[in-house]
Amino acid sequence: MSTNTPPQGLPGDIMNWPMLKIEYRTDADAIAKLLPPGFSVGKDPKVFLTVYNYPVMDVPEYGCTIMVAADYDGMEGQYALGYAIDQEDAVYPSREHWGQPKYLADIDYFLFMGDVTAKVKHAGHTFIEFRGAVNKQDGPGEEFELNEWWIKSVRDVSMEPGKFEFPPQVVRVYQKYSTAYRQTVKGELILRESSADPIASRLPMREMVDSYLWTPNFLDRSITKAGELNAEEFWPFAETVGGTRFPANT
Q1: Which has the closest alpha carbon to 125: 138, 97, 106, 144?
Q2: Which residue in 39, 67, 217, 238 could disulfide with 78, CB within 3.0 to 4.6 Å?
Q3: Of the candidates 106, 134, 103, which has an alpha carbon nearest to the alpha carbon of residue 120?
Q4: How far is residue 1's CA from residue 49's CA, in Å, rounded to a whole number?
Q5: 250 domain residue, yes or no
Q6: Can you name the residues that pair with 79 across neighbouring β-strands?
Q7: Is residue 23 situated within a structural domain?
Q8: pLDDT of the chain, 250 residues: tens digit per residue
Q9: How far apart are CA 175 and CA 223, in angstroms?
Q10: DSSP state of 231
Q11: Furthest-apart CA pair in the chain: how many Å?
């Protein structure tokens, strides 16, 4: 697709919305403290934020995903710490079915004449904010693959430490994309302190890497179990901050 030809469609159709992709670099040891045993920090200690409006169950879902660079079983990927979304119907089935860490939040996300605004609010507090403007149009780029890691587990009703009804499983979400349209965005990312969403304190921004609007071509996707984690070692990571995967006890 030409870099000068944006996606076509009916105005107002939510399939038209590009994703706002933000990447920043943090400290490797900060990521390491959030990863359960069995995972290792990726070669570049990045945090990946994606703000979106996309149809889920055929209705709009505003959301913001929070990922960190993490490897599992020799495979590079991104470990999902949270999916802050505004659609309640998708929260609990996603967590129960796959371990996808969705939780309720309020997201403001819109584009206006090249200006980009995004805010993520939870428990009455805006903990992520981005404001910017389209800086340039980019080339389509190559096809690429991505592994995303979720954790599915159910603790035993006895509350005996280390005991699970369903032991912790690593869920691999394999994805393959190409880029239909991409625009670099120049802007400012603000992370605010929040006990309910501790991204600012646990994943401090050391360097802004990239921010852009992205419309993908979806080429492939599959969800499979990739392996089982040691139950006793995972136990402290089963207790989380709200619906996120930020561990509450580390």
Answers
A1: 106
A2: 67
A3: 106
A4: 25
A5: no
A6: 68, 149
A7: yes
A8: 445 577 777 777 777 789 999 999 999 999 999 999 999 999 999 999 999 999 888 889 999 999 999 999 999 999 999 999 999 999 999 999 999 999 999 999 999 999 999 999 999 999 999 999 999 988 888 899 999 999 999 999 998 899 999 999 999 999 999 999 999 999 999 999 999 999 999 999 999 999 999 999 999 999 999 999 999 999 999 999 999 999 997 6
A9: 9
A10: H
A11: 60
Which parts of 16-163 fold into alpha helices (H)?
28-32, 88-98
Give me the residue label for tokens 């470990």.
79
Six-digit token string for 174:
């394999």
Q: Residue for token digits 């096809």?
A: 143
Nearest Cα to Cα of residue 62 among 151, 6, 122: 122
Residue 105 counted as domain residue: yes
Do residues 102 and 81 touch, judged by C-beta distance below 8 A? no
Domain-located, residue 151? no
Matching residue, tokens 């040691």: 230
Domain count, the chain: 1
Structural domain boundaries, residue 45: 14-139+179-216+228-238
